[in-house]
User: What shape does this take?
Amino acid sequence: MTRAKISIIGAGAVGATTAHWAAAKELGDIVLVDVMEGIPQGKALDLWEAGPIENVDGTVLGTNDYADTANSDVVVITAGAPRRPGMGREDLLDINKKIVETVVQEAVKHSPDTILIVVTNPLDAMAYLAKQVSGFPKHRVVGQAGVLDSSRFRRFIADALSISVEDTQALVLGGHGDQMVPLTRYCTVSGIPIADLLPKKKIEEIVERTRKGGGEIVSLLKTGSSYYAPGAAVVQMVEAIVKDKHRVLPCSAYLEGEYGLSDLYFGVPLKLGAKGIEEIIEVPLNETEKAAVMHSAEAVRKSIASLRNC
Ligand code: NAD
Assistant: This one.
């Protein structure tokens, strides 16, 4: 059996960390691409040389040439500028639109059958753009947001209850912005609803911290945005694809009527496997949750509409 080929476009903080987590899990041969000469080569060589310590095989190649990405099973798009303090994700739209257009064109030229995982912000708009530019069917273009947002939510729940993160489950729907919708009703500790374990006020605090989780890290780092947890989130998706795990994960997907929404990328629970998105799962929502979803969708629609004006 041959190893999976995973190409990561953008060898910056998120791209390199994604490569790191993927190599540590021995998910396949990794290709790291960037416009900066020497950066992907140096990072890839360094990571490859760590293989003997971690007992992992597989190649890690750094390059500026998309020909090296040919026939990738998965292509992860992380190229683009990150936020700085005071910036919202939407402030990145202008600059990242041009970058994502170029890198998607190049990547799909060499891997016409690949599955694209989009990470660049503003996430839902960039995933929409990647689908347009690639011309791929909707099941082969998926955005990473919900796995990260749900991980933050789970971390805060585990911390509040002094329990293992392993026993926490969370579901965060919606756009990857401050209007995201953590569905607290569907958040449990080993099947026990968190409302039975934590006071309402504490849950509200956790929801708020989850919504602002990205910004909290930007304001601490000052020079960029988070990358360890985003990289780990991407790798959970990559693993679901290369191992055909049929995992149920919250990811950004192109909707055609699901949740009453159409023609936008939006965070929903879906089944992810070797063919990409296998199924979008619609969970019943109460009126408050529906209103929150619509509010979040409005923000995503605005972001997608801005793509046309820049
Ligand atoms: P970074 O600045 O560390 O790295 C970006 C890399 O992209 C740089 O190495 C740069 O040279 C490269 N690049 C720029 N133009 C390119 C091109 N045309 N072709 C190839 N490479 C190119 O930034 P980062 O922290 O890695 O963040 C990357 C993106 O991911 C940002 O847009 C950020 O907002 C986003 N992000 C998304 C999530 C999420 O959950 N979806 C989480 C964190 C960061």
